């Protein structure tokens, strides 16, 4: 059975979103791992509140790409506030990421997992990265994006 690891940065809101992502992964048949090196899929739930938070998210993204490169077939999902705040449309930096979703977009994650498992899903088809963005519903820390 495949294993997944969810890495959460930022505030309790992000932790709550990660709890929902974790449930989605379990529903899709993944076992949640406590060791990223055992995992086949990693979800990075990022923060973009202030510059140090953005820097930490970018640094963790680099580590996650290295993690992917250590074993064939691993999958990477970038979620949370960083993709909600920035776009990299012209960039190569995101080519290792298999899915990019906005904050709390569990529906986007489920569509991706369905596709990964070869199940039919209402949205998305074909290969390559998929990006789903959700209209952000607000932040109790008064972020300005
Ligand atoms: S809601 Fe604000 S503090 Fe929380 S993870 Fe997102 S950017 Fe960071």
Describe the secondary structure blueprint for this structure.
Layout (H helix, E strand, L loop, with lengths): L2 E6 L3 H16 L3 E2 L8 E6 L4 H19 L5 E6 H5 L13 E3 L4 H11 L13 E3 L13
Parallel strand pairs: 1-2, 1-3, 3-4, 4-5, 5-6
This protein binds iron/sulfur cluster.
Iron/sulfur cluster binds next to helix 1.
CATH hierarchy: architecture: 3-Layer(aba) Sandwich
Number of structurally distinct domains: 1
Secondary structure: helix percent: 25-40%
Strand order of the largest sheet: 2-1-3-4-5-6
Please identify the top-level CATH class. Alpha Beta
CATH fold label:
Rossmann fold
Structural category is: alpha/beta
Based on CA atoms alone, the radius of gyration comes out at: 14 Å
Short description:
By secondary structure, the protein is an alpha/beta fold. Helix content is about 35%, strand content about 20%. It has one domain: Rossmann fold (3-Layer(aba) Sandwich).
């Amino acid at each position: 059975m495949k294993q997944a690891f969810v890495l959460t940065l930022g505030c309790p809101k992000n932790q709550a979103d990660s709890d929902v992502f974790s449930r989605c992964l379990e529903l899709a048949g993944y076992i949640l791992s406590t060791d990223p090196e055992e995992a086949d899929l990693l979800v990075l739930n990022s923060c973009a509140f202030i510059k140090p938070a953005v820097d930490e998210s970018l640094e963790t993204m680099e580590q996650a790409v290295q993690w992917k490169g250590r074993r064939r077939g691993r999958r990477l999902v970038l979620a949370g506030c960083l993709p909600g705040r920035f776009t990299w449309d012209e960039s190569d930096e995101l080519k290792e990421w298999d899915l990019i979703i906005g904050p709390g977009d569990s529906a986007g994650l489920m569509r991706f997992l369905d596709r990964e498992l070869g199940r039919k899903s209402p949205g998305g088809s074909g290969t390559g990265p998929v990006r789903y963005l959700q209209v952000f519903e607000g932040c109790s820390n008064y972020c300005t994006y």
